[in-house]
Amino acid sequence: MNHTTAIIIITVIISIAAWQSRPLLERLIFYPPAVQRGQYDRLLTHGFIHANGMHLLFNMFTLYFFGRAIERFYIDKFGSLGFVAFYVLAIVVAIIPSYLRHKNNARYRSLGASGAVSAVLFAYILFAPWSTLYLFAIVPIPAIVFAIAYVGYSIWADRQHGGSINHSAHLFGAVFGVVATIIIEPSIVLYFIEKLLNPAF
């Protein structure tokens, strides 16, 4: 079993368990005051629970297709758990800006793997900027066009401070995915530029 599939299975099991147990969900969810009290594990555990079936399906569907595509890169660089380490670190890094912004907000909560999934997706875009993504699993769109629109929308939506979706985690997860991959393999920058300028190749 590849590690992407293993992460998906674990996430699905924990998410379903949390839906069945409110105390479990409340213990795993990202809640800044609890982190301040020393429950630092919430910086990670929130990435393995989801609000509902659609939230879970969208994230795991995206992870399934793009995680498998880049998993080998991280394993080749860091060994058998390289991709798992990248994914776990992405969850934590993506939520830190939210923690700094809301650390004194007792009403703030966040959950979901979106930050890590964004990191995976944007790392993939470095390797194949013109590959076709399917928005809502239906509408075809070039990966690089999606990336630009995604970043723009995330910045705009985060400034609105509306709704329960953590757009900040989406944005910082995407940034982490790009920056970490470039640090690991600096030559990917030239490769990305070449691919970007030559979409037919």
Automatic annotation (TrEMBL):
Q: How does it sit in the membrane?
A: Multi-pass membrane protein
Tell me a GO cellular component: membrane
Q: Where is the Peptidase S54 rhomboid domain?
A: 38-184
Record's keyword terms, sorted:
Hydrolase, Membrane, Protease, Transmembrane, Transmembrane helix
Q: Chief location of this protein?
A: membrane
GO annotation, biological process: proteolysis
Q: What is this protein called?
A: Intramembrane serine protease GlpG
Q: Which organism is it from?
A: Moraxella cuniculi
